[in-house]
Amino acid sequence: MTERLSGGDMLIRALQDEGVEHVFGYPGGAALHIYDAIFRQQKLEHILVRHEQAATHMADGYARASGKPGVVLVTSGPGATNAITGIATAYMDSIPMVVISAQVAQELIGTDAFQETDMIGISRPVTKHSFMVKRAEDIPLIVKKAFHIATTGRPGPVVIDIPKDTTDPAVLAPYVYPEKVSLRSYNPATRGNARQIRKAVQALLEARRPIIYAGGGVVQGNAAGELITLVRKLNLPVTMTLMGLGAYPGEDPLSLGMLGMHGTYEANLAMHEADLVFAVGARFDDRVTNSPAKFCPDATIIHIDIDPSSISKIITANIPIVGDAKSVLEDVLQIVDAELRDRPVNKTARDLWWRQINEWRDRNGLNHHLKPEPGKRILPQYAVQMLYKVTGGDAYITSDVGQHQMFAAQYYRFAQPRKWINSGGLGTMGFGLPSAMGVQMAHPEATVACVTGEGSFMMNMQELSTCLQYGLPIKIMALNNQALGMVKQWQDMQYGGRHASSTYSDSLPDFKTIAEAFGHVGMRVDRVEDLEPAVEKMFSAEMRNKLVLLDVWVDPEEHVYPMAIKGGSMKDMILARAGEGKAEPKE
Amino acid sequence: MQRRAIISVLLGNESGVLSRVVGLFSQRGYNIETLTVAPTEDETLSRLTMTTGGDEAHIEQIIKQLYKIVEVVKVQDLAETEHIEREIMLIKVKATGPERDEIKRTADIFRGQIVDVTPDTYTVQVVGPSAKLMAFMRAVGNAKILEVVRSGVSGIGRGARVLGG
Question: For the whole prediction, is pTM greater than 0.90?
């Protein structure tokens, strides 16, 4: 006989049946039936955050690090609206997430009831899809559909809005969790078109100056292994977007590092001069292309993406391929192997291309004046290099948004996918700490560090309390420049140094004391010579089970370079601060 | 090159789906000139027709974005192929003195029907492509038009081809 359950119990049972282990959330009136259902079971762990935004970032970090969908539970009204920033963050970066928002009872919807808000309406532009539950018995199918949509095709957040009356413990309905689900109007592509793939391989093998441009889709699509095989087989230069870092090992000589606004000199020059750009799982974001009209003038564009609407949106693709990165790259490899039997890669052309790239690389754009000198302020780049050294390049690194994010992306040379976790698309300050918590939940034994700035950190630092409750031993490196560094940098460069609302050095809290007040370990360093011992201590065995916040007072005048020149092509970059005599005109 | 598109969409008849379509257009800065939506012979499906404009890349992007809406089953730009386009207009015009006959004659030329009459006004129903409706309005002249209600464009492909799920 079919089991009869209340809507609240059905929801939790469906999550269990979906294999969900953690739910990140915050209770409230409309969600109380659901919370009671959570209380009466043991399989599913609920993580109580201190602000709903953090719940979404935690679920997001969990999803990015584990590849499994993150699950959020919030109450109606402010609970739901607080979750929006995190939903939008996940949407922009295509992260699988299911957000369950409680809603006032159906009879109250539309009456401006207490804690009522139109969550479906508010979340619509930042979700892949959303559902409103009307009857308890619909819950299992809706949950099944929500997870299916969130995790397939181009992943993204899905909202389930659940009115309180549909979770009423007094109303029982039969519970059957569907084995699978089919949606008439939702059939995302997986395999790429064979003829297009063949064309792409021909173009790739014929190219004299090819480059691989890999994005977050390679990481999300678990295609890093295939990418590495392809790159090494053909001795190809590979550059990665901010979201793609780790898709190919950063220390490998074939990697040109990150491209784009703060990308390496060699990556951007190689893109500009390439005769073939092989884009996979990347979306030609404005932070990559600079002016689309001047983008890669000589290149044939191959664009592989799971989302047809990403293709030819900004840059017209000559060879578009809609498909899953992993499956398309598998097909590419198969054809490449067959072709290579008949004709080897043009070695002379490839050597010439590499010689040119290595000349650009020798300009050493990232290390223009990185010399730690005793008695001088700590350079933020140096702090990230130290983090890289001490963690052996093997930690999960989350970041917030701003200069520290770019320094982390540039100087932590990620060797593996899913280890670099940051808000690339939306650029959400306050993402770093809660996402690190989600990563730690997914990988309890792993080293998880959050590289943040004092500005971003203050946006969600209440979660230090959650960290204590759940024993999350995250290591926080706050690059404290006593200002909103990236804003200040732009003001220095484009607004005559007028620092409108970007500084607050006279009102900063003592972060060491804050960490201690929350029951954690706080440290502060000002001098270069103290940095290494402090970072060593942070990652020492003694601190293994403790959250440590290291407040690193860095040079507040430091800018992020290289930097693209606005409105230019990809080769138009500034390599060092103008006025230091190192401004780099275009080649 | 800028051109007009008649985007025909077959979509699941679920609550909130219209707001997803309209929201997509405002969110991405696409212009909607006309919009009509009604159920089809299959009660689980609605047919939505909208007219918009732009260059080929823009129209292609609109179609791709529409496909991302989960309930959207099928999208087609009718303007790209042989099609029939109809719009219905109810137009109330001043009809007094010698002009009263003139309005009647103009309506006849456009195969319009007078569907309501008062001593001083005619309400005329005109059916056809948008251009015909515009031509009728020009023929009558703005000074005489009291009220215009247009349905927005509906369209269907010519021949045996259908927009199916």
Answer: yes
Among A198-202, A230-234, A243-247, A338-342, the least confident range: A338-342
Q: Inter-axis angle of helices A194-206 and A325-342, to 10 degrees?
A: 50
Taking only the tens place, the pLDDT of each residue in B148-164 is 999 999 999 999 989 87
Average pLDDT (A331-358) is 92
The 3-state DSSP class for residue A50 equals coil
**Closest Cβ opposite residue B65 in set A129, A186, A309:** A309
Taking only the tens place, the pLDDT of each residue in A80-96 is 999 999 999 999 999 99
Rounded mean pLDDT, B103-107: 96
Residues in CB range of A182: below 8 A, 6 or more apart: none
Q: Are A15 and A41 a contacting pair, CB within 8 Å?
A: no
In angstroms, what CA-CA distances link A208 with A42, A270, A346, A585, B85?
60, 12, 8, 26, 51
For the cut 50, the answer to whether the pLDDT of residue A399 exceeds it is: yes
The residue whose two tokens read 């099609």 is B83
Nearest Cα residue in chain A from B62? A309
Neighbours of B114 (CB within 10 A): 15
- The predicted structure's pLDDT at residue A582: 42
Cβ burial of B163 (10 Å; 0-12, 13-18, 19+) is middle
Q: A152 and chain B: CB distance < 8 Å anywhere?
A: no
How many helices (H) and strands (E) would you count in chain B? Answer: 4, 9
Report yes or no for ipTM above 0.85.
Answer: yes
Instruction: Give residues with Cβ within 8 angstroms of A345, minimum separation 6.
Output: A205, A234, A235
Q: Which amino acid is at A135?
A: R
| Contact between chains at B23 and A307 (C-beta distance less than 8 A) | no
Bridge pairing between strands A563-564 and A573-574: antiparallel
Nearest to A72 by CA among B70, A221, A84: A84
| Tens of pLDDT, residues A356-365 | 999 999 987 7
Pull the structure tokens for residue A167: 């979770």
Choose the closest CB to A309 out of B27, B61, B71.
B61
Residue A197 gets which letter from DSSP?
A: H
Q: Would residue A164 show up in a list of annotated catalytic residues for this protein? A: yes
Which of these, A185, A203, A206, A187, lies nearest to A195 by C-alpha position? Answer: A203
Give the tokens for residue B4. Answer: 């007009």
What residues are paired with A45 via a beta bridge?
A22
DSSP state of A542: G
